[in-house]
Each structure stands twice: as structure tokens, then as C-alpha cells.
User: Fold Putative sterigmatocystin biosynthesis monooxygenase-like protein from Hapsidospora chrysogenum.
Amino acid sequence: MVYKGQRHYSEFQVPILERPVDDPGRKLRVVCVGSGIGGITTAIRFNQHLGEHITFQIYEKNHDVGGVWLENRYPGVACDVPAPCFAFLFEDNPDWSSYYAGGKEIFDYISKVADKYQTRKYVKFNHMVTGARWDEDKGTWGITIHDQVNNRTFHDEADIFILGWGQLNNWAFPDIPGLHSFKGEYMHSADFKEDFDPTGKTVAIVGGGSTGVQILPQIQPKAKKIQQYMRSQNWIAPVGFGAEELEKRGALEAGNFTYTEKEKQDWKGNPDAYHDYRRHIEDSMMAYMTEDGFKYGSADQQRMEREFKGHMVKALSSRPEILKTLLPDFPPGCRRLVPGPGYLEAVVKDNVEWIPQEIERVTEKGIVSKDGVLHECDAIIWATGFLADFRARFPMVGRDGVTWDEVMDPEPEAYLGCMMDKMPNCWLYLGPNGAPGAGNAYLAIELECALIIRTAKKMLREKIKSVCVK
Assistant:
């Protein structure tokens, strides 16, 4: 370079690129498994930040987006996190009908966001990923996909492989003799038959976690009899998380409240006010859980235990045998709380049989409990949860021939909750220690997605072939 008659130059040989310096010179192939909250977040954020530098594809085994909120349609399905907080960080929703939203309304919100950001165009529905193997030479994942509609199998390659398969869709059935020998109606809660009518029937509900606690109050008034199988103790909380707002509105006893049309219209006219409202609820909810609320022996923890115990003792006073087997001998917070508005009130009704025993076997006519008694029934609802052990949903082989399940055995581990040893260029949403024990899954996914995007940008900029933690 010549400046004011003098030649200026570097003593180093710097090659001149045949492209702009900010052009990475290649595109990354990004493949995501699942179009639930994680998949939709990925589609939106990756295309906002890296649109022209990537090709993007989501493979979804179901017929639509939504993940767990598409699949779970049982009576009473809802979220125990306040609806204003249970939303994408970039898409506030002032139209929530109530403080705690039902599953259908949550699905509709997710679907609306997918439409607004046109994410469905990136999704191949009814396509199930059946295997993946890391190719060290290419620095890519070889992925096998089954087209369930056309019954054909094909392959794809990914520079970046993102697993958004979720935690609450891999059904768990107990290992019980005769499980499928029952001649009546039976279903897992995640595959609930929407045309199922409990009217006049004896219905067995196996499981007393969040799902069973939501289902029982919905069908108890219609059923001839409910058989509730509950083998573990649970703190049944009167309300979900974020009770401060319920107390403020005088809705603690009701356990929920609806938003007025005026509130919704005011928030639509003043988005900043709604965002502040959302932040206030989330801050108060998280502060309670991260400060002293779950600290053993703290004043807040002891107060919470007194309140929960008092609630359960009062509600179950007419059925002391239920209280005896249900009331935990451990403090709240050791396990995820089970908010159960209406559950304790329903379980004491005359048509509910409390069976606090393990199941010995299932017969054509019903369930045999551990004491040898046959409990005949017309239908069985298996509210037995999901396999949330971080095992692979399909055969997956990483670096050095190590399988995914070998990485996760004996104790699942992940860097920042989403990156695993021996799994280069691969991220798992809500992995080990990556999912909130309570609170907003959207926030955790958004933070993990931001990490993946930062890594992808570095890979492009510096021509990095693979990234893996040790």
C-alpha cells in the first residue's frame, strides 16, 4: 500500500482470499430430531443467525409439530408452570386464557408460533430417525431415516446433529406379568383414547405422579368406580409453581384463575407491560426455588412443609388410610412437587378405592395386587410416566465406535447439560443436568440453542471440522 509517497507492507506473506473475509466458504448441514419446543427453537434461531450459511432439516416421527404437547391428550393435561412463563422467550403470548394453561392451549400456542415463523417448511413429518453413526474422516453424522408414510428408508448427513427428542414421550410400562393379557380397554396416558368414556365403568389408574393426579379428578365423577394404585409417597401441592400471583388475586383455594379480556387487550396494546408481568412471575418463582425454598432446614422450607402437610391432612381427614400411605416421610423438594388441584378432594370420594400396593400380575379380568386380591375392572390407564434415563431413542455410534448408551452408563453426564463425550458435533436438548427441575424448559432450551449457534459460527469462521468435549 502506498500512502503519502511511502510504501507500506507487511513482512509476512498474507494470502489474498478469493472471497470476502466474512464468507465462511461453505455451508453447514444442520439436522435436528424432533419438532417440539427444541426443534422449533432451533429452526427459528439457526435461520435468524446463520440462515445463508446452513442447510437445515428436522425429522419428526409425528404428523405435526408440538412434541409432548401434541402427544399427550389425556383428560386434565396441563402445565404446572404459569402460562406467561411457559413460552418462547422471543414470543410473548398475552392471549393465555388462564394462569395455568391446559395442554390443548399450549399446543395451539406452539403451532401458532410454528406458523408465524414458517418452521413447518423445514420439517419432514412422519419420518423417524432409526440410526446415526459418526464418520471421523468426513466429520459428519450419517443418519438413517424411515419414511413411515411411503415405507422407505434413506440416509442424510449432518455437520451438526441436534437431538430434540424430548424427555416425556418414551413411554414407560412396568415389567408386570400378563401386562397385555387384559381383555378390557387399556392405554398409556400418553396414548389416551380421546373417545374413551368412563361413564358407568370401573377404571384402574396405575400411578400417582403428575399424570395420574391430573387424570383422576377428571374421570372420577363419571366413573362407577376408580381403583387408584399408588405405591409411593408424594407431596400433593395445592397449586402449581408461582403461587404468589394466585395469593395476590385471592385464587389460592381455586388453584387457578382466568385472565379478563380487558387484561389481554391492555397487554396487547402495551407489550412492554406484559413482558414485565411475565418477568415478575418468573423472577418470583425462580427466587423461591433458588434461595431458601428448597434449602433443607430453612425457615421457608419448613413453612412450605407445614403448609403442604396441613393441606393434605385437612383434605384427607375422612380417609386416614390414604393419608397414612401418601404423606411423605421426606421434606418437599427431594422430588419434584406434584401439584394436584382437585386430586385430594376427588380421591376421598366413595367411588374411589385406594390400593397402596405393588401389582403382582395382570389378568384378563383385572389386576392382582401384591396381597393376592384380584381387582376386576373395565379399563386400565397406565399413568406410569416415561423413560427419562437419557438412553438413545435409536442406535447411535460416536467416536472410536463408542455407543451413546455406553457414554451414558453408569451415570449420565453432559457438559453444560447438552454436550457429551465421544459424540462430536452433537447436542442434546435438556440432557443430564440440563433440564430445570422446576420452571421454564423454554429458557433452558434457548440457552442451549445459543451455545450451539456460537459453536457453529466458530466452526464456520475457523473451518473447524469437529467439536467434542472430554
User: Anything to note?
Assistant: The chain is about 30% helix and 20% strand.
